[in-house]
Amino acid sequence: MSSKQSASNEPLFDHRVDTEAGHGVDQPARQNTQKRVGNWEAVVLSGTALLLVMALGAYLVLFELPGMRQREPVIIQQIHQEENQTPFACIPCEKLLRSNATGDVFNDPLLRKLDIQIDHGRLNCCAYTGEQKTALFESIVRLQDPARQPVPSSNVSGFRFSPASAHMRLYPERKTHDAGYSAQLMELNPSNLRYGLEHYRNVTVTRHGLQVTFGGLYYIYSSVQFKPQSQRPCYEFKYKTFVAYVERISKRLHGLIPLLKSIHSCCDGCADRQETKYTGGVFPLEPGDVIRVSVYGQNLVEFTPETSYVGLAMLGGP
């Protein structure tokens, strides 16, 4: 029994040994296969990394580098001399112009004092020095000024007026002794309108003054240049104080009503020996009322269209 058992067990023992021996023969081949797979994995990873590096480089070249170059301001106009100085302020140049026209930047007298740079395709005006700060502030303040509207024409016919208005030059031709005082009335000449702004609308111009057609509220004004027509010094004058009146002659009241008054004192050696006096105010007038100017004294006024005149303008009516 023991011999049979040993005989039957021997093939089983040999088969196990052969099997282990067989496994020992196949192990180098399996290691070679694993090495080849590892090599392919390394190649794939290396290729992927190379592709990523190339993609990153292409992105930098196409997108980031141009942007980095563009973010560096390009100096077009440099006034200050110090290098690497931080600006006090930089403002887009178009915001400092009324017209928002970029072409006007280099022609503007204030902006020409500033450093002008290009940043992201936009012109920036920068201030570094004290003078540039002043120019920058002045350019900001002037934006608050009302826009100037050009006058289409200096001819009277090119303007629109209130329902009634007049502006006439004064002439010295009449003398009067109203109220017991010697006075010189300022005359008007409706036939001589050579001075470009003289006009009258719904107002009758006579030698005595301006007669209104419509009743209402009027702005009335006058200017008189006091300049004695004499070489005598002021201390020899009987009256050294000159008075001019703007008077209303009321058709309904049949009376003379002073509306405005201007006074000038003559003085030897004074800078104001001659002086222009302007006065104006708002008054109600009735149809037929006359506005005139009189100066109490003789030969005391210089008559020029720029300094001696009278006018009125209707502001509103009933």
TrEMBL record:
One Pfam family from the UniProt entry? TNF
Q: Which UniProt keywords apply?
A: Cytokine, Membrane, Transmembrane, Transmembrane helix
Region Disordered: start and end of each range? 1-33
Q: Where are the transmembrane segments?
A: 42-62
GO cellular component term, pick one: membrane
InterPro entries the record matches: TNF_dom, Tumour_necrosis_fac-like_dom
Instruction: List where Basic and acidic residues composition bias occurs.
Output: 12-23
Q: Its Gene Ontology molecular function terms?
A: cytokine activity; tumor necrosis factor receptor binding
Q: List locations, semicolon-separated.
A: Membrane
GO BP, sorted A to Z: immune response
Its main subcellular localisation, reduced to a broad class, is membrane
Instruction: Report domain THD positions.
Output: 164-315
The UniProt entry's sequence similarity note says: Belongs to the tumor necrosis factor family.
**What protein name is recorded for this chain?**
THD domain-containing protein
